[in-house]
Structure formats: structure tokens, C-alpha cells
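Q: Got a minute? One more chain.
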Amino acid sequence: MFEGLLQPTHLLVIFGIALLVFGPKKLPELGKGIGEGIRGFRSAMKEHEDRSDKNTIAS
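A: Always. Here it is, folded:
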């Protein structure tokens, strides 16, 4: 069903639509916000794993 979903041509079309919708000035801000969100999510997951490991070792 989702085979070949993220082919290069599909990504170019998605980027083109995003450029039309948000404009060239908003795209860097949007990318920065998405990047910060991903970094925050990763750090939260790492903290959760660290706490889980400490609880497992302490038990």
C-alpha cells in the first residue's frame, strides 16, 4: 500500500506544494521548528530510556 511512497519525485512535489503554501520566507522557520521538535522528542525518549534502565538495574 505504501510502497515507493517517498520517491524523489514525490518529495519534490511535496516540497513544491509547501513552497507555494508557506512561501519562501516561512519555510526556514518551519524547518527549524520541526527540527527542534524532533530533537526534543529524541531527548525525551533518551531520558525515558535512561530512567527505565536505572529502575531495571535497581530492582
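A: Residues 5 and 59 are 44 Å apart (CA to CA).
Q: Perfect, thanks.
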